[in-house]
Design a protein that fits this description.
This protein has about 100 residues and is mainly alpha-helical. The protein folds into two domains: about 55 residues, no CATH class; about 30 residues. It has five helices and no strands. One of its GO terms (molecular function) is protein dimerization activity. InterPro entries: HATC_C_dom, RNaseH-like_sf, ZnF_BED_domain_contain. It comes from Merluccius polli.
């Protein structure tokens, strides 16, 4: 099998997986999406892998309240002309 044929078959498999997923009824709003994907990962293996990556909550070592407090200290009315990049750098340096 050539690389082009292999790519076409992967593309075709992905298209079939997406089409099959779209045909499924919607889940209730109160359903746990991670549990749903765990239950259905054998039907949609490629999409399940993406769901695990994008539905997971990244861990953090800094509590969000602390970061928001730091932002409040840095971004004041007198410093409101700072660019977003400079604000990000200042927050990073303060939290190191």
């Amino acid at each position: 099998m050539t690389q082009e044929q292999s790519t076409k078959s992967v593309t075709k498999m992905a298209e079939e997986e997406v089409n099959s997923f779209r045909a499924v009824d919607c889940t209730p709003l109160d359903a746990d999406p991670l549990r749903w994907w765990k239950t259905h990962e054998h039907l949609y293996p490629h999409m399940a892998m993406l769901a695990r990556r994008y539905l997971a909550v990244p861990g953090t070592s800094v509590p969000s309240e602390s970061v928001l407090s730091t932002v409040g200290d840095i971004v004041t009315s007198s410093k409101s002309v700072l660019s977003t990049e400079n604000v990000d750098i200042l927050i990073f340096l303060k939290k190191r």
